[in-house]
Amino acid sequence: MNSLAFCVFCLLFLKEEVLPKRVCSKQDVLDYLNLTRDNEKFTTCRPALDWTHPTILYIDIYLYGILSVIEKSQIFVPLLWMSVIWNNERISWDPQDFCGINKVILPKEMLWKPDLFVLEIAEKEDGPLNPYLLISHDGKVIMEDDHKIVSTCTMDVHKFPFDTQTCHITVSSVNHSDEEIKLVPASNASKVTQTARENLMTQGEWEFLNISVSHQRQNFDGQIFEMIKYTISIRRMPLMHVINFQLPILFFLIVDLASFFIPDKGEKLCFKVTVLLGISVLLLILNDILPSKSHKCPLIATYVIVIFSFMLLSLLETILVIHLINLNSEQDSKEPIQRPEIHNTLQLGGTDTPNSETDKRKDDYISELEAPFESLMLKEIYKAKMNDVHLLQIILEELQSLKQTLVLYAWKTKNNQKYWKGLAKCINRVFFVCYLSSISIFLFIIFLEWRDE
Length: 453
Hints:
This protein is an alpha+beta fold.
């Protein structure tokens, strides 16, 4: 027994010390498989020994970056890592025959690759792709690539900037139907979503939500082609849009409400026009952000247009109030003062009018006074005195009539001013109450629409 053990020990020692150690390389595997760049057996044909057996492709897509989402042109640019695994029935070897080598990396040009493409792609990739494939001893082939995909995405900006977008990445074969190639998602939606959340490096202004995976079949020219659709859900981060756009418009509205308390109507009118011009500038900015075509009117556009309309009505109301206040003064400047017509001609030392009743009474009075006097000089003296008395009476009557006219005119002007000013104040108060109520109801409704999921 001891001699047998000694012999085994000697054999092992001699094997390690005397016999040379076997050296293997991966080139030996390629030589064994006869894998070369010019071997059309591996590069041109689908790797199936029986053509009726379809090649099954296991596809995985992992999201690790969102570069940009352009609403204007409806472009979605994600960074993806795509892994495709299939079985090449013409490749196999025993690792024990090659010093335990069970995997080999070789250039893509040496093997057949599936003709996969993304249906939503809008531009070709501008970055370098992985030029190698990984093959294992049992014929499994793994192709992995990093992709910067510029794809189209139908944007629904109805709730901008509180919107959620869903963009699709659909992978399919160009030439092979389901009889030749079958597409199978290697990971379910929960695993893909969890991997994306762990590896996501950049999101920009968007927050990643989840990825859903679905398997579809579509008929083209009588052939069935299989597709795997990855639906990526993202949500916009609205903070910057709220600060830079929505709050300034709300501040303009508050300033417009405060302008109702400006006493000077002229300054109030200029102030409201300036606020309207500020809203117009924000409308131009909004036009550059939103896409030109949309199925629904964005709530942000409704928000701006309705506020703009309310402020325009406020401006028109200010113009009406100013017109009512100035209406009375314009009428007064055009209306002449009505004075009583004077029927007597005032002349100092002149002749009398024979047809006037006042002159007739004057002559009768003078004739009564002429009887006691015989002297012509005295008669003339008394006649001149009576003319002065009559002149003073006429002046007094005219002054009294003018006073009554002025009093009546002042009373009428005062009443007119009170009426127009009262009407203007009433219109201003009623409009302010309606304006404030309507704006409050509108803001409440539109913020509920934005908040609704």
